[in-house]
Amino acid sequence: MTPLLRVVTLPPTLLGSEAIRFAEEVRRRGANVLEVRTDLHAPEAVDGQALARVLPLLISERGKPLPSSWMEAATYVDRDVTVSVEVPSSKWRLVASHHAARPLSSDEALCLWEQTLPANAWVKHVEPLGPSSRVEELLETQSRLIARFGAGRVTVLGMGPAALPARVVLARRNALDYVAAGGSWSAAPGQRLLDDAVRELRAVERGTARGGASRLGILGTSIVHSRSPRIHRQPFDRIDIPEDGPVEELVDSLLPHYAGFAVTSPFKLRLARHTRAPLEAINTLVRRGNRWESFNTDVAGARAVLERLGAREVFVLGDGGSTAALRAIAPEAGVQLRVLKRSEVHEPLRGAGLWTWPDRIAPPEGLRFDGARVAVIAYGAPGRRVAQEIARRGGTPVMLGSAWFIAQARRQRELWESAT
């Protein structure tokens, strides 16, 4: 089962005609419902009737009363069960919601839903995820609410910086899927992107989606531009968590639900240690029964980039997971590496090199190049930003991110097909 409706919330900065354009854009990309919340917009800030001509409106009462002008345009109305479950007109469908302040046991959660609701009301239960190991608790809460209210009426959501994979596992039986349009704002921490949700739906419709507990995903920080969800078989989740997030606990808790993960910056070293890999860094996890087996297919990417760069002596900026792959393949490729940490960059660099720092990390202020050819192994917008930095500092960027990415992704695909 997939969610009945994909709900996108109108960002608080968008007013008037900008709000209309946003609604048109997310409709084109596959949204079914536009949510407008009373805590994010004043009644006069948006035209409810104009928005409703683009997408069905879900009007959510959050602390401030529901404006009559919005109510006239609404198809769905969200009200907190602790405030009211009354809907003034039969033309509206109620979303009865409860937003818990702390993680709840399933027994505690069920106690919140003792009251009688309108026969066709949707039930929306939201709580902080807490420890990643609570995925199973939320799944039990979802199952028990479905048993009480019926399939197709229940939505259970976890919230938090590491909640995305819990939300997508829950989404398999949820009625509503609250997703983010993209950019710098989302309505709640842990939301996945609308484009990723639609990509999975299309795969389900074509009959090409993986089934059961065979989801895949990419784990990293600031990975909105990752191409992995676009090239690998669906469902493939973009799990963007903070650099200090509990990634070890997260992958352990998701073992029953995922067949494998791609691992990118900054978790390649941490997960190598956690999985007791015989490698300095890993970029791929594959489920083997009740454990994770780890691999580093970045070696294939490193080989491709060193071959394209065509130099026998290469300096490397940064000493993280990508550099570990370069070290592993350099002797075989006949390349001598000079690995430079941030504190070791003092004089202008010449010759050929590789930039491995993520673009979210500021390079040393004193970094300069004296005509050096510097390979960029990021791609998309991050790769372009790195290239601009290299040129600004006197170097010539060589865009090799796609070569690295494609070479390592081919090997990842082979490994994931062997998951058990």
Model description:
- This protein has 14 helices and 18 strands.
- It is an alpha/beta fold and 420 residues long.
- It folds into two domains: 5-209, Aldolase class I (TIM Barrel); 299-405, 3-Layer(aba) Sandwich (Rossmann fold), CATH 3.40.50.720.
- The strands form three sheets. Strands 7-6-5-4-3-2-1-8 form an eight-stranded parallel β-sheet. The protein has a five-stranded mixed β-sheet with strand order 10-9-11-12-13, with helices on both faces.
- Helix 5 links the parallel strand 6 and strand 7 (154-159).
- It is elongated.
- The model has no long low-confidence stretch (mean pLDDT 93).
- This is Shikimate dehydrogenase.
- InterPro entries: Aminoacid_DH-like_N_sf, Shikimate_DH_fam.
Summarize it:
The protein has two domains: 5-209, Alpha-Beta Barrel (TIM Barrel), CATH 3.20.20; 299-405, Rossmann fold (3-Layer(aba) Sandwich), CATH 3.40.50. It has helices at 16-29, 48-52, 68-73, 106-111, 135-149, 164-170, 194-206, 228-231, 247-253, 268-274, 298-309, 321-333, 380-392, 401-416; strands at residues 5-9, 33-37, 57-60, 76-80, 93-99, 122-128, 154-159, 176-179, 215-220, 236-240, 258-263, 284-288, 291-295, 313-317, 336-340, 352-355, 373-376, 396-399. Helix content is 33%, strand content 22%.
